[in-house]
Structure formats: structure tokens, C-alpha cells
Amino acid sequence: MDVTELHRRAVGEFAARVDGIGTAGSGAWRGATPCSDWDVRTLVNHLTYENLWTAPLLGGATVAEIGDRFEGDVLGDDPVGAFAAASREATDAASRIDTSEIVHLSFGDVPASEYLYQLAADHLIHGWDLAAATDGDRRFDPDVVAAIADWFADREAMYREGGAIGARVSSPGDDPQDRLVAGFGRDPAWRSR
Asked: Using N-to-C axis directions, what is the helix angle for 40-58 and 112-133, rounded to 10°?
């Protein structure tokens, strides 16, 4: 699967779970997530923030040039709408990029394709976090799961050594999605209550 399509589909998977929160009532936004330091609102804010960074970074900006313009609460009074607007901007920017172009990230320069894989993985894994936290649909597009798993296989040790993910969780069974979630340090059986 082309990485821009993978990114679009992974963002769409997360968006579908955000849309579900909008109908669940305001209490759902304060619920616990598998990311122990974040509630649901903080998790969605994180991905919205990430989406706001996407277009400028894909456009050649450096982290220093972007600065702190997206710091703080980027969700405002309409978290579902804020996420939708930011994700549209991010996927539009991704659809126009030559994936061999260089993106200037905080840890160094990488091809846009690598950055888009990272973004797709973050949306998919945090989409699982969001679904688990809100009792939403935890099953994701198997093609997206497979593409992220293939990409992640060569990066898991580096991510763990860099502190970006927790220890691998023992995963029961042979389910590819459960194995991927466990690789990112999540217990596939996690429940909010």
C-alpha cells in the first residue's frame, strides 16, 4: 500500500473513533486510556496537535520555525471539529508531497515517507487506545495493521531503546493486531474499568 494512502486510512481509523466520542456525552472525554498519563481528551489533543504539525513539516518547515504555535489545548470547545479540521489539513498535505522529499524532525532529517509511516502508526495505535478507552470498535483495517506491522518490525527495538514505547506485552494468540498492539507496549485485553 502506498504510504500516503496508508496515512489517510490510519487517520480515518482514528477519526472514526473520535466521531464516536462526540455522541457518547461529555463524561467520555475524561475517561482513562491505556496511556496512563492521558485521559481521552488529552489523547485526542495529542493527535490533533500532531496533525497540525504535519502540513508545515511536509512543507519544509523546521521544528524551530514552527516553534510553540500549536502548544496547549488545540481542541477548544469543539474537539471533534478541531480534530476533523486538523486531520483534513494533514491528509491533504500528505497527498501532495513527493515522499522522497526530506522532512526536518526533532531527531533529524528523514524522507517524507518515513514521517508518514510514523504518523500512520501513531494514529493506528492511539486509535486502538481511544477505542479501548471508550468501549469503541477495537478492530481496525487489517491491511493498515499489516502495513504498520511490516514497517514497525525493523523499528521496534529502536523505538523501545529511545523510550518512545513501553516494554512489549505478552500477547495471547496469533491475532496480527494484538501482536502489533503488544509490540507497542499495550495489553490487548486492557479495559477502562
From this structure: 170
